[in-house]
């Protein structure tokens, strides 16, 4: 279902992937610095989630300024929260690369503003912890403030997320967290000798099983 979400004097293009049964949880998903919501990994993940009963709303926001991207993401969260079509118990915020930074930033901002529990967790695909070859300046400030569960799915050969550095940040985080390494994958999740579909299946399976664990934990 295509929708246009009001954002200032513009609109954000977005698409709902809707499960057959009425969903109780949703995932909001966005892209990295390049591309848009039709990036193949996002389309594949949205279809996988919807087929397993989780509503997925993915959106495009082209700005390269992280504050602007964060503001757009926050607008989409409010839009879904107030939606009459889908009455959800909670959502997970998810993004690829820069989109995961924006998602982390939104969670940090919202947790400082209100303490409702609409946001249940964060999924970071290829979190860009540092610029390539610039490992002295880590983009970890939002992660250290987050309290809800966090899943990282990163390539072990990601030039923007050195393995030991992410593990070091994770050890300092207060939130329950899990890291799944895609062996030999780079920042774009490409792995020599594996097809894109094969890699996407691994990512999708990890994201869904983590969501299921966290939703089940809540119902116990």
From TrEMBL:
<dbReference type="InterPro" id="IPR046879">
    <property type="entry name" value="KANL3/Tex30_Abhydrolase"/>
</dbReference>
<dbReference type="InterPro" id="IPR029058">
    <property type="entry name" value="AB_hydrolase_fold"/>
</dbReference>
<dbReference type="InterPro" id="IPR026555">
    <property type="entry name" value="NSL3/Tex30"/>
</dbReference>
<feature type="domain" description="KANL3/Tex30 alpha/beta hydrolase-like">
    <location>
        <begin position="27"/>
        <end position="209"/>
    </location>
</feature>
<dbReference type="Pfam" id="PF20408">
    <property type="entry name" value="Abhydrolase_11"/>
</dbReference>
<protein>
    <submittedName>
        <fullName>TEX30 protein</fullName>
    </submittedName>
</protein>
């Amino acid at each position: 279902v295509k929708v246009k979400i009001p954002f200032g004097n513009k609109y954000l293009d977005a698409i709902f992937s809707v499960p057959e049964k009425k969903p109780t949880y949703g995932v909001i998903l966005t892209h990295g610095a390049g591309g848009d919501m039709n990036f193949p990994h996002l389309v594949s993940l949205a279809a996988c989630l919807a087929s397993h009963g989780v509503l997925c709303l993915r959106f495009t926001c082209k700005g390269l300024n992280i504050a602007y991207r964060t503001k757009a993401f926050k607008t989409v969260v409010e839009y879904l929260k107030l939606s009459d079509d889908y009455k959800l118990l909670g959502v997970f915020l998810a993004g690829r690369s820069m989109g995961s930074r924006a998602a982390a930033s939104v969670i940090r901002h919202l947790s400082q503003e209100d303490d409702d529990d609409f946001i249940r967790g964060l999924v970071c695909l290829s979190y860009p912890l540092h610029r390539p070859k610039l490992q002295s300046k880590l983009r970890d400030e939002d992660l250290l403030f987050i309290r809800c569960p966090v899943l990282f799915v990163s390539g072990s050969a990601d030039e923007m997320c050195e393995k030991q550095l992410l593990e070091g940040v994770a050890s300092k985080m207060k939130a329950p967290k899990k890291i799944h390494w895609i062996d030999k994958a780079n920042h774009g999740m490409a792995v020599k000798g594996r097809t894109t579909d094969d890699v996407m299946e691994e990512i999708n399976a990890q994201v869904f099983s983590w969501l299921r664990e966290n939703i089940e934990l809540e119902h116990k």
